[in-house]
Design goal:
Blueprint lengths: L1 H11 L4 H15 L4 H8 L9 H10 L9 H23 L3 E2 L2 E2 L1 H5 L1 H21 L5 H22 L7 H26 L4 H25 L14 H4 L5 H9 L2 H12 L3 H12 L3 H19 L7 H15 L3
Antiparallel strand pairs: 1-2
Helix pairs in contact: 2-5, 4-5, 4-9, 4-16, 5-7, 5-8, 5-9, 7-8, 8-9, 9-10, 10-15, 12-15, 15-16
Amino acid sequence: MQKTEKLNLQKIVEPIKGYLEEVNEEIEKRLYTGIDLVDECALHLFKRGGKKIRASLIILSSGLKDQIPENITTIAAAAEIVHAATLVHDDIIDKSSLRRGELTVSNKWGNKIAVLAGDFMYTRALEIAVGVDRYDMFPILSSASQDMILGELYQIQYSDIDLINIQHYLNIIELKTARFMAACAKLGSVIAGMSNSESDIMYDFGLKIGFAFQIIDDTLDYMDNFDNPEKDTASDFLSGKITLPYLRLLEKSSSYEKDQLTEYARCPKHESFAIVKKMIQSSNTFEYCIEVAREYVRDAVSLLDAFPSSIYKESIINLTTFMIERRY
């Protein structure tokens, strides 16, 4: 099943395969310093490749009205570097041991080096954005980066089981995930020279698929994920993150079950995760979360009616659908 899903994603992005290869080359070139420790840390997360969803979103968005513009891979690489930097820092905060089947940067080299590596990646990405001689790119990327940091702080403030609710959860994923997806879609449209109204449409499109992507990602944490044995399941629960599946289960539980779930969240353990997972799987929680994500996707796809039919439009719609059908 894992191979089938990955092959489907590869098929979806086939029209931009050459561009994505250039993005990989650009990332290696831009992060290379000649200092072994820096180079190993900065490129560590790219060893497995990754899905390059954000790069694909930038490239496909840029081709929605015409040909894909030159230098698009440079800004796409910058976006992927920013995303990787956030993962390095997230893993420090969450004390995660694995990422994409590999030791995290913080686990392998320690928190001090991981913080500095993440900082280096952030600054290098923003330097790239300025260096493309399109100064309208910089505020979009820098604003999205700030939003992700604010989202992390917001999550810390409202992560307590007594404070978190569905609205706070949505606020968190908007800041941490959705606005960066929105920025990527807008970056593609702006560098392609689209009108302000068209760029606003793409921002809204990216925002909606960002919500859908994160909701599915959080739901996968509670699934029997045979498709990806590398996924570090239970990581959200054990790090104290309360996501939509947990909130929905709380919402539909009896008073006694709510008390139990509240205690499990206050002192998360592997044993209690197994109980929670079973409760979620025996309820309609998965169906609810997936339907919420589908609604975001339906709204997002309808926004693309503003653009003519093309191979890139077909690919971006398929990419959007993939986000709720993926199993890794």
